[in-house]
Amino acid sequence: MKFIDEPISTRYFTQDDRIMIADGLARGVPVKEIAMNVGKCYQSVYREIARHRKPDGTYQPFYAHGCAFAARKRPKPRRVAIDASLCKAIAEKLEQHWSPQQISRWLRRRWPRRERWHLCAETIYEAAYLGAFGKITQKTLRTGRTYRHTKGRGRTREGALKQMTSMRSIHERPASVELRRQGGHWEGDLILGSDHRSAIITLVERKSRFTILEHLSEGYSAAQVSTALIRVVTGLPRAMRQTLTWDQGNEMFQHAATQRATGVKIYFADAHSPWQRGSNENTNGLLRQYFPKGTDLRTYKPGDIALAVEELNSRPRVVLRIELQIN
Predict the structure, then answer these.
(1) Which site from 12, 191, 241, 268 is most exposed, i.e. has the minimal number of CB atoms within 10 Å?
(2) Coil, strand, or helix at residue 322?
(3) β-pair partners for 265
(4) What residues contact 133, with CB distance under 8 A and at least 6 apart?
(5) Over its length of 327 residues, how does the chain's per-residue pLDDT go in tens digits?
(6) Structural domain includes residue 97
């Protein structure tokens, strides 16, 4: 196969990336270490190896690159657009309130040898949003949305991968932090307003559950979050600046600069693991009594924020009394 190796985007593997993967596998290097060297997340490297290895199970970079080129998207008709029977079968199941995931699995079970009908759920969603099955209503899709809901806080795949290669995992956090016997270890997150146009930074100290709020009325880009965190954290006593645990939101893209300016070590919880920041998640739930979901956080004044902080920090907490008795 003849093709020109022109990079499309940094999110895709290049021929040099695949050579590095093959060399690492030949030397017995762990896949996670290979991913760090390539600059991609390890899940992507695992998928690359599984998807483009040869029939004998070996991974050969030039063979893999050729397979990737052959599978590259081109202007071509969609399956539901050229196959009326497939389109009708999917439309009937949508009318019966089946989800695209259920339809995808059903197509594979019902017609195991008709591989052109084996569509993933995302392909069915995309076809629905393009109008292949008629106007989208709650009878077509349960949400009734007419667009693909963006996941994450404006996170781009490229930005997420750059952050992932340099962030410090919660599993590297000192075990003493779990004991909650020393002050200065914080958990942080954002609560967002309507249309995701404004936010409030919430910081909760793990031992005392002391809460700090910082209003971001003009937006919550990585630069704005970093500036606000530096302003808040540097105002704390040095002994209270030990660690900060956050989720993997793109708003922490400048975490390295925040660490340098404040001296606090920042750790990131695992994806989809809110229990690893349980104190902060619980506090965010309490704060919704003051800042209900769906409201525009830009309408709140500094006095409103201060009142919420004062009342929250004045509340008696059973958990603190229990921990005091244990200690």
Answers:
(1) 12
(2) helix
(3) 243
(4) 80, 87, 90, 91, 94, 127, 140
(5) 445 566 666 778 888 899 999 999 999 999 999 998 888 888 899 999 999 999 998 999 989 988 888 877 666 788 888 899 999 999 988 888 888 899 999 999 999 999 999 999 888 988 888 888 877 776 667 666 666 655 554 445 445 545 555 789 999 999 999 999 999 999 999 999 987 888 999 999 999 999 999 999 888 988 899 999 999 999 999 999 999 999 988 889 889 999 999 999 999 999 888 999 999 999 999 999 999 988 999 999 999 999 999 999 998 877 776 555 555
(6) no
Residue found under tokens 């693909």:
148
Distance separating alpha carbons of residues 223 and 231, to the nearest angstrom = 12
* Residues 6+ positions from 114 with CB-CB distance below 8 Å: none
Amino acid at 315: R
- In a domain, residue 210? The reply is yes
Q: Is 200 helix (H, G, I), strand (E, B) or coil?
A: strand
What is the reported pTM?
Answer: 0.54
The CATH number that applies at residue 247 is: 3.30.420.10
Angle at 30 between CA 24 and CA 32, to 5 degrees: 105
Q: In this structure, is residue 103 part of a structural domain?
A: no
